[in-house]
Amino acid sequence: MLAIADPLALAADRLEGRSAATERYPTPHDLARALDPRVVRTPALALLDQNLIDVAEGRCKRLIWTMPPQEGKSQRVSRTFPAWLLARNPDLRIAIASYETNTARRWGRAIRNDIQANPDKLGLRVRRDTRSAQEWQIQDHAGGVYSVGVQGALTGRPVDVLIIDDPIKDRAQAESLTYRERVWDFWTDTARTRLAPDAVVIVVLTRWHEDDLAGRLLGQDVRREWRHVNIPAEADHDPEKGQTDPLDREPGEFLLSARGRTDQDWRDTRHDVGTRTWISLYQGRPSPESGNVWKRQWWRRYSTPLWSQHPTQPDAYQVRDVDQIIMSWDMTFKDTKSSDFVVGQVWARKGADAFLLDQIRKRLTFTDTLTAFQALVARWPQATGKLVEDKANGTAVINTLKTKIPGILAVTPTESKYARANAVSPIIEAGNAHLPDKTIALFDTDELIEEAASFPNSTHDDQVDATSQALAHLLLDSTGAMAWINYARRQAAANAAAAAAAAEAGGEPDQPEPDAPPSLPPDAPEDPAAARKRARDAAQRQQNNLRGG
Predict the structure, then answer these.
(1) Which residues of 120-159 are buried (b: 16+ CB within 10 A; e: fewer)?
(2) d(CA 187, CA 195)
């Protein structure tokens, strides 16, 4: 528990009405509502109050609170909570830090003005000789508030309560390693060194980057002392993985907004800001610029549509000059036990290149899944093979539709999701996986890229599963395997020739070239399992060549 004043000071406090303030305002919300009747109470802010009370009463000394912007978190943490604490213990030395001094000073000014305007409600008065917005002190007590930017100093100022509110201003600062290091240096060299022995720290922010202050604190929390509460705008937990929502919402349920935003307002925001910003700022799950399986920069884009309006079917597309078109499905039906999505993709192969043409990604019931499956089949009539994972919900779809729709192929995975994604990683790294440019895309390609960048640590992996399944079938497990093998051979030969030319130019002795894999006659039969193995081996060799290994 935060230290309280000695008995004589406590007796004086009671005479001045501070004990009454403590009883009158048991939670920060009660004080906020007394100071401004317009303040609303939402489940998220109620949960925030519970955590702030835990901080005040010693049950939590390190709190990270992440939440969408403009939902009242800073007003509660950086304005109401310090005044609420000082009403209980006017000797607390509170520091508020933000991305710049002026922003932190704004909170210091707001708290000071609340106290000056409501001396009877709070039982507090500000010293006349220290009442600047940046630094002021409670009359007859050691407590007060000091405001500082993350480039400022706290020299000579012991801190009992440290509040770091939005240390990063915008995307430009978030993407700057120099600025992120500056924020981290503020914590390690300035703020951490000024903390009193029983000090508490609250970090409240919207997340811009996985390497922000919250990310580093959590990543280095070897003592497991930080409590992290993330409130996503849309509940996206997966109960089947043991995940829960802090507000006990169902998957897909939007946040009850302190600003009165409706579900449609949230959907519009998600559409307007784009997937990357939505996932980071609004869901609190910024993805790394480069994942450890599929990196962002590996994806290729195509800007000319491969499809055109079907000549006889008004709601369908026709694709020309490709070798193969398939669908790949990852099935999970919407219910109260799962938040996963149903994902259906349409892929085309041309030689050793695979092109994603279309995708649906929705939470669907079993009936809605059947409808979506049939609709995508009608939209892309040239997709002869429809890959469906033959487990869990996929089996029910296969059994229901296999007598109605031709070409449904049951796929039984024998490896983990990670292994399957890693198996096709060389294909993506080599630039053989193409996504449509945003100017022509029929779906949001950023959703796939963001999910892939976070894999295998992302909450959802439905798109990754469907993509792995499609690429393996197109380029590792079917007729496309030979195209991929030939491509890998050509690339290996080109790399060897380039290395030989470089060695000759540098006067180095020629290195013996590795024996070329034996070629097969075009009509030579080959065992399918052997073909798959050769394709996977070639893929791994190609990946090693690309990485210089």
Answers:
(1) ebbbbbbeeeebebbbbbbbebebbbbbbbbebebeeeeb
(2) 11
Report pLDDT digits (tens) over 341-351: 899 999 999 99
Residue 376's H or E segment, with its range, is helix 366-379
Q: pLDDT: is 418 or 253 the higher one? A: 253
Q: In terms of pTM, does the model score above 0.90?
A: no
Residue 218 pLDDT greater than 80, yes or no: yes
SS3 (DSSP) at 328 = strand
Q: Which amino acid is at 213?
A: L
Helix, strand, coil: what percent of the chain each, to 5? 45, 20, 40
DSSP structure string for 199-268:
EEEEEEE----TTSHHHHHHHT-TT---EEEE--SB----GGGT---TT-PPTTPBP--TT---HHHHHH
Number of neighbours of residue 323 by Cβ within 10 angstroms: 14
Distance from C-alpha of 332 to C-alpha of 124, rounded to nearest angstrom: 57
Report the pLDDT value the prediction gives residue 212, as an integer from 0 to 100: 93
User: Angle at the Cα of 68 (from 65 to 74), degrees rounded to 5?
Assistant: 55
DSSP strand pairing (342-350 vs 324-330): antiparallel
Structure tokens at 321: 């000059």
